[in-house]
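tool_log.txt
---
The assistant was asked to compare two proteins side by side. It first ran the structure predictor on the initial sequence, then on the second. Raw inputs and outputs are pasted verbatim so the downstream comparison step can read them without reformatting.
(1)
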Amino acid sequence: PPVPFKYAYEAGRAPGGRPDRYVEQEGDGTGQIRGSYTYLDPNWTWQTVKYHFVHFRNLLFFIGKKLNRF
């Protein structure tokens, strides 16, 4: 059965530099997983994708949404 979890991290391209990507994800004990990732694209625009996976009757459904951050 699914086990609840939660994690997050951030990373940068240059050692000691500022982060340019972020990830968060959590899952509950029912098989649902929610999360997001954000990154700085080559045009210096922040891009964010939020997602939600739902486990239902042995199928995994994906619900996602892309958001732009400036």
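(2)
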Amino acid sequence: PERAAARQPANVDINYVYGTVLLDSRRYAEALARFEAARNAAPLYAAAWRGITDALDALGRSDEALASYRE
């Protein structure tokens, strides 16, 4: 997914899938960046918002995770 994301940085699906891979690999800050890229490309993409919330929570940023969930 890394090469695909580099070739298509605004692709919602690629960023989301790559974020999921990074989250599963415990690379939380990188995952957050990918989920945010997906959200920025498609603000109504609920899965990206969920990924942001999960990454923030994993980073220990619970208050931000809760705020993201509410958005």
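---
observation on (2): Residues 28-41 form the longest helix (14 residues). The helical segments are 2-7, 12-24, 28-41, 46-58, 62-70.
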